[in-house]
Design brief:
The protein has 365 residues and is mainly α. It has 2 domains: 1-96, no CATH class; 106-360, Vanadium-containing Chloroperoxidase, domain 2 (Orthogonal Bundle). The protein has 12 helices and 2 strands; from the N terminus they run H-H-H-H-H-H-H-H-H-H-E-E-H-H. The chain has helices at residues 3-25, 44-61, 71-76, 81-94, 161-173, 182-190, 194-208, 213-241, 246-251, 282-298, 324-334, 340-360, and strands at 305-308, 315-318. A two-stranded antiparallel ribbon has the order 1-2. Helix 6 crosses helix 11, helix 7 (194-208) runs antiparallel to helix 8 (213-241) and helix 10 (282-298) packs parallel to helix 12. The chain is globular and about 70 Å long. The two termini are 36 Å apart.
Length: 365
């Protein structure tokens, strides 16, 4: 799945896991109200496995949940199986008509500053597809009140010096043949798949810090609820601003009304330009959300937090969770697919969403 879709479905899974474990542990308010409690003797591990398994089956098959489980998991639950199934059944029922897989698509425009697919300069003959997962913008949020509760300041005005500065930065550093420093190139190459990498990194971090199963369930609910709501919000902001990508902007730079933005009709981004608008940056919405949620959960003091590529070949270590978004903001500029303000304001949306989730969900009893 594409990262925003991953984020939405991870939140569905991890919220169900949290509610199943919390039904036994009982230390915090459930995500979904009205679920039955379970006795202390019930197995938290089996509850987590059951909830994760059945929600994943429903998510991947896009079919209604059926209460069918392996005998191994069923046998591991000592008492009141019905209470431990309740979280997955309730979660799937709640998200059954939540806007996933809808028909919404981003709108192409031909005026300066308006988004159009990939390399196309007109809307009638696009040279690349628009985002088939644009429906993320219209998915019902998990905790925030709406996808437009947090709205960015918007992209820079085309005729301003601030826009010209961002334009020339990405034009200089974001092409395949751009001369980047060794540090810039390392950042450019590292940040590719946020949802998988962040979840894997926090699994390792939680284990290393000795979190109990119940503590991990709450941590991952907070992380993924924040990540999903930040990306829903981000996609709503993309639809609202509908701002062109650097590749389109630089190819049409002589038509934007700014004397300081020289156009280059052959300019391409260093990595493939995604088929949806620039503002705000999805990667940075996710980064801001995950890292702010982590600071709220663990505290903002110094730590050793390591991100590693799935291959294991390269890693980056940070002294604070919040330091990560400094790199991801730069990365999307060096890759040529975002203007800097889209990255900075995306990270801010993520942080705002995470703070809202922390204040309004999964509170201690």
């Amino acid at each position: 799945m594409t990262p925003p879709v991953q984020a939405v479905h991870m939140a569905i899974v991890q919220s169900a896991v949290y509610d199943a474990v919390n039904a036994i542990d009982g230390g915090h308010k459930p995500y979904l109200e009205g679920l039955p409690s379970a006795p202390d003797s019930a197995s938290k591990a089996a509850a987590a496995a059951t909830a994760a398994h059945d929600v994943l089956v429903a998510v991947l098959n896009q079919t209604p949940l059926t209460a069918t489980f392996t005998e191994a998991v069923r046998g591991a639950i000592i008492e009141r199986l019905d209470a431990l199934l309740a979280s997955s059944i309730a979660m799937i029922a709640m998200r059954a008509d939540d806007g996933r897989w809808g028909t919404f698509r981003f709108t192409c425009g031909e005026d300066p500053g308006e988004w159009r697919p990939v390399t196309s300069t007109v809307c009638t003959t696009p040279s690349g597809p628009s985002d088939p997962f644009a429906w993320v913008a219209k998915v019902d949020p998990f905790v925030v009140e709406s996808g437009l509760q947090f709205v960015s300041r918007g992209p820079r005005e085309l005729t301003t010096d601030a826009y010209a500065k961002e334009y020339n930065e990405v034009k200089t550093l974001g092409a395949p043949d751009s001369v980047r420093s060794a540090g810039q190139q390392a950042v450019f190459e590292f940040f590719q798949a946020p949802i998988e990498m962040f979840n894997r990194a926090f699994r390792e971090y939680a284990t290393a810090h000795g979190l109990t199963l119940a503590e991990q369930a709450r941590l991952f609910a907070e992380l993924t609820l924040s990540g999903a709501d930040s990306l829903i919000t981000c996609w709503e902001n993309k639809a609202l601003a509908s701002f062109w990508r650097p590749q389109t902007a630089i190819r049409l730079g002589d038509e934007d009304g700014n004397p300081n933005t020289d156009g280059d009709p052959n300019w391409v981004s260093a990595i493939g330009t995604p088929p949806y608008p620039d503002h705000t940056s999805g990667y940075n919405c996710a980064t801001g959300a995950y890292m702010e949620a982590a600071e709220l959960y663990f505290g903002s003091g110094r730590t050793t937090f390591t991100l590693q590529l799935a291959s294991g070949a390269v890693s980056r270590t940070y002294a604070h969770f919040r330091d990560v978004w400094d790199d991801t903001i730069d990365a999307r500029v060096y890759q040529g697919i975002h203007f800097r303000s889209a990255d900075e304001q995306g990270a801010k949306i993520g942080r705002d969403v995470a703070r809202w989730v922390d204040k309004h969900a999964l509170q201690p009893i």
